Every structure is written in structure tokens, then in C-alpha cells.
What we know:
Chain A has strands at about 5, 10-15, 20-25, 30-40, 45-50, 55-60, 65-75, 75-80, 90-95, 105, 110-115. With about 120 residues, chain A is mainly β. Chain B is mostly beta strands. In chain B, a hairpin with a 2-residue loop joins β6 (about 55-60) and β7. Classes of the chains: A mainly beta (about 120), B mainly beta (about 110). At the A-B interface, β5 and β10 of A face β5 of B.
Amino acid sequence: GAVVSQHPSRVICKSGTSVKIECRSLDFQATTMFWYRQFPKQSLMLMATSNEGSKATYEQGVEKDKFLINHASLTLSTLTVTSAHPEDSSFYICSALGPSGNTIYFGEGSWLTVV
Amino acid sequence: GQQVMQIPQYQHVQEGEDFTTYCNSSTTLSNIQWYKQRPGGHPVFLIQLVKSGEVKKQKRLTFQFGEAKKNSSLHITATQTTDVGTYFCAGRRRQLTFGSGTQLTVLP
């Protein structure tokens, strides 16, 4: 089946720095990718929808200048958390819309800890 | 704002028993999605329902979308230990809002 890979799986960064998380579709082209945030034992929150070659669509309440999304190719989307603060610490997950357009495939997720 | 409420929060069943989780939206939805997340794992997309009154089946799983497109349910027949996990619904109107999830435990 379709595979989505996310990197890094865990990252620790200092307050004020920026950190980039990559999401790759390994065996298919993904024109649409999604970024989510999940706090421990809580539900998912969709942050934004990333479309290849165009600007991401952000969900209500998500700061686009804080969470920069780039979908420069059909197999790669990146999420950059800028000027990270401890409250940005969370589990970030990406997903990609599969070739059929009917199924969404998730990456393994990335644990971000801001110290 | 849009709210999606999901009940129950937790459900323990004996293997072989049925299980149902319910989702209710404060607003009419354009579609609803269901996901499963195993403990320590990432979410897995199960299905999307779009039409009013739609019913879809995946083996032992039955998904329903209400006539008013404001509620949905996931029913599992004869649960197995492999069904363990948290089941989330997510309703789309202007934005995609996830329910709080139902954590299913299946006792062997």
C-alpha cells in the first residue's frame, strides 16, 4: 500500500529557534497533504491542507506565519515551526491523499519538544 | 463555532460483543470521516461519508451518516482484540473538526 514517511520522529529544540519537519510520500505522488497536531491522549487537530505548487490552506485559529508549510514537489511537504516556544511542544502528524483520492495515508508522526 | 461531540469516551467490551460510537455535530456537515488510532500509533483513515443517510460497510464495521448530516455512528460487530484503539470522527463544514474519540478496550 501507499507509504508516507515523516522525519524526524523526535526533535528537541531551544525556545526561539525554528524546526522543520518533512513529510514524504514514498511510492506515490501526493498533490494534497495534511498537517495535524495532537496533544497527549487528545484528539487530532487539522492545522492545514497543503497543495503542491500553491499556498497552504490553514484551519481557523492556526497562525500561518508561525507554522510555515511548503509543498514544493509532489512527494514532499514540509512544516516549519518558527520561533518555537514550549507550548508548541506536541505530536505533529502529516498525511497524504492517496492516488485514488479516496484514502488518506498517515506518516508516523514527529514528537517536538521545545525547551 | 463548530463542535463535534463523540460518545462514549471509553468503552470496554468482551471479545465477541458489539460496539458503537456516536458523533454529533452542532452544525450540518458536508462530510464526516472516521479514523482509528492504535495505542502509540498514528491515525489510520477508515472512511468518508458524504451523502445524507449514507451507510457503508467494511467487513465488521458499519458506518452511518444521519439524514440531517449532523450525526454519524460507527458500529463494530463481534469485536476482536485487534479492534482495540481510539476511534475518532471528524466532521467538515467550513473546517474539519475532530471528535474527542472513543477509546475501545476489548477483553479476551
